[in-house]
Amino acid sequence: MKVTVIGTGYVGLPTGVGLAELGNDVICLDVDENKINMLKAGKLTIFEEGLEELFEKNTKNGKVTFSTSFAESIPQADIILIAVGTPPNPITKEADMKYIKAAAEELAHHLSGYTVVAVKSTVPVNTGTMVETIIRRTNPNADFDVISLPEFLREGFAVQDFFNPDRIIVGANTERARNVVAELYKPFENKCTILYVARQSSETIKYASNAFLAMKIQYINEMADFCETSGADIYEVAKGMGLDSRIGAKFLVPGPGYGGFCFPKDTNAMAYMGKFNGVDLSLIETTIKGNDRRKINMAKRILDMVEDVKNPTIGVLGSAFKGGTDDCRESPALQIIEILLAHDAKIKLYDPKAMDNTKAILKDMVTYCNSAYEAIGGTDVLAVLTDWDEFRTLDLAKIKQLMARPQIADYRNIFDCKKAKELGFEIKSLGRKL
User: Fold this and answer.
1) 417 catalytic, yes or no?
2) Full set of structural domains in the chain with CATH
3) Cut 0.70: pTM above it
4) What pLDDT, on the 0 to 100 scale, is given for residue 155?
């Protein structure tokens, strides 16, 4: 099939490359000329495990191309996937729809023949109706259907999730549109459930799913705090909980709080939609507040370890919101760093993939290092804030030699606490027996 993907971010680019790998002819369209020029030159603009190989393969064989031109990218498409950003309004926290509206209006001018317009961005309920109205107003003679096709790609696992989805949700109100999507996702017919629902239901499923997962993360973080005071071990507790099929084992890992672009944005947007519709969504609102408090609490715990040191030097491992991605948006690590800086701490920072994105946010407020050991050298406390696998292989004995004081705030639980204590470290972790 001929597919055009509007937006080349953490959703659009893996989706476009993935669809090309399945044999479709894909155009990835973006108004950002610099980004498109980089992609045309063979340089990926995001980091995702496994994406580079597929990107190189499908750009070389011509199955995926890149463009800034709607006139060139829209007319031949059988299906158009809108995967542009829906950032939160800085005041109300509702999803900002300006990029969706702009994409809908521009593509409407160039539709030719029957086309399915699929909204893949995470959007409020009834966005499909809004997009349909914009296209109809702009091009009254267009032959099209608008569907909801939400994405469920985890950052860091986007390629894996694309080819091994738990489910595919299709919000289509016509049989004609469903048939087009069925053809596109034919390779997944026997791999997962493809659920066809009403468009409004599909739009709600995405928000409801992310809000539930965010609540699950906040819950296990609260249980970790309880375990620290009760003598229980959070991993034993989580394993016992996860054996219940009604609960499941995923998202029961304690950490410094959820982050990334999706969960903070989507929980806030869901809470806003609840208020807009006069519905009490107190569980979601409590989750948001609890997650905000957690980052403050994590920073306080680190500062407590160096309360006797004026202007302490803190080594930080990780700035991405989680391992496997270079995305720093709403990263708990960066939010914790900003609190530490506000308390006059000096930060030495290392992240294996996210340094460029980090520098764009923190500027010259921290010292950027070329390795984990460089970031650790001469520090009063080491804070582990992102769960990169390479941090798990670090030599604790070497770390002790490098540090001014042997103190670790391990808020990704990557180190062996028993071994660390035997080596003379003071180590703090989340929910584990020390």
Assistant:
1) no
2) 2-197 (3.40.50.720), 262-428 (3.40.50.720)
3) yes
4) 86
